[in-house]
Design a protein that fits this description.
Length: about 160
C-alpha cells in the first residue's frame, strides 16, 4: 500500500465525524488498527472509515463497546464489515434490542413514580428500598431493568500495546 493511501488521525477524524481522541481510544481498544511512520505517527487505511461507520451504527442502536468489539472480532483480521456482515450481525442483536425496547417501555411507564435508582429520597416510590438493601445488588441503578444496563468496564481503559 502506498503511503498516499493512508490517512492521518486528523483526516480520519474529520471524515468520520469522530473526535481524534475517540479514534485513538478505539485504536487502543483494538477496534481499529493503524500503521506507524518512522516518527511514530498513526496512519490509517481508508477502510478504517467504514469500520468507524460500523462502530457508530452499532453504538446508535444501543450496543456496548464490548458487543461492538465482539462483532468486529468475528470478522477476518483487518477486513471491514460488508453489507452481508452487518445483516448477519444485526440478526444476532435482534433479541437484545427487543429486550431493550421492552425495558425502556417499562421504564417509561413507571417514570412518574420511580426510575429504578434505589434511592431513599422519594416520598412515594413504587420500589421500596428499606435500609438500603439495594446496595447488595452491586453498583449503579440495580433496580434499572437488565435490558438497559451495559457493562463497558472491560473496555474502560485501553490495554497496553
Amino acid at each position: 500500500m502506498r503511503t498516499t493511501d493512508l490517512l492521518t488521525v486528523g483526516e480520519i477524524a474529520r471524515r468520520s465525524g469522530f473526535a481524534e481522541s475517540a479514534v485513538r481510544y478505539y485504536e487502543g481498544l483494538g477496534l481499529l488498527s493503524a500503521a506507524r511512520t518512522a516518527g511514530g505517527q498513526r496512519r490509517f487505511e481508508r477502510s478504517t472509515l467504514r469500520r468507524l461507520a460500523f462502530i457508530r451504527a452499532a453504538r446508535n442502536v444501543g450496543l456496548s463497546l464490548n458487543e461492538v468489539a465482539e462483532a468486529l472480532s468475528s470478522l477476518p483480521a483487518g477486513r471491514t464489515p460488508t453489507r452481508a456482515d452487518w445483516s448477519r450481525l444485526s440478526r444476532a442483536w435482534r433479541q437484545r434490542l427487543d429486550d431493550q425496547i421492552e425495558a425502556l417501555t417499562a421504564l417509561r411507564d413507571g417514570l412518574d413514580s420511580c426510575i429504578g435508582c434505589g434511592c431513599l429520597s422519594l416520598q412515594r416510590c413504587a420500589i421500596s428500598n428499606p435500609a438500603d438493601i439495594a446496595r447488595g445488588g452491586g453498583p449503579g441503578a440495580v433496580y434499572l431493568p437488565t435490558g438497559l444496563r451495559r457493562d463497558d468496564s472491560r473496555l474502560a481503559s485501553p490495554s497496553p500495546r
